[in-house]
Amino acid sequence: MQQHPDLTLLVELADEFLQLLRQRQVDAFDDWLLKASSCAIKPLQTFAQGLFDDDTVVKASMMSEVSNSPVEGLNNKLKMLKRQMYGRASLALLEKRFVMAA
């Protein structure tokens, strides 16, 4: 990070964003969004623009206690197992792998 000062800013902004999400600080989100948009790192600007486009959705997700992350994680795991097993074995083995993974 000493050789690349932009990385220091990137790490700071990423940590700040993580804290905003974990602590549900909706009021500080706009300030973070402005900092990220004005950053010299293009991928971070693109990420910030995407968040800005869905501003109301992002803020609503920060305020909500409900999350579908566990369900999405399980879906992702099952899809990965399905891809790994494609064409390799019978449906019975695939079913056993699904049950063991869940």
Written account of the structure:
The protein is mainly alpha-helical and 102 residues long. It has two domains: 5-63, no CATH class; 69-101, no CATH class. It is 75% helix and 0% strand. It contains six helices and no strands. The protein has helices spanning 5-23, 29-37, 42-53, 55-63, 69-85, 91-101. It is elongated, with a radius of gyration of 20 Å. The relative contact order is 0.08.
How is the topology of this model organized?
Layout: H1 5-23, H2 29-37, H3 42-53, H4 55-63, H5 69-85, H6 91-101
Helix pairs in contact: 1-2, 2-3, 5-6
Shape: elongated
N- to C-terminal distance? 40 Å
What's the number of domains?
2
Portion in strands? under 5%
* Rg, Cα atoms, Å: 20 Å
Q: pLDDT under 50 segments (min length 5)?
A: none
Number of strands: 0
Sketch the major β-sheet.
none
Written as H for each helix and E for each strand, in order along the chain, the element string is HHHHHH
Rounded mean pLDDT score: 85
DSSP helical segment count:
6
Helix share bin: over 70%
Class based on secondary structure composition and strand pairing: mainly alpha
Summarize this structure as a short list of keywords or feature phrases.
102 residues; mainly alpha; 2 domains; 75% helix
How would you sum up this structure in a few lines?
With 102 residues, the protein is an all-alpha fold. Helix content is 75%, strand content 0%.
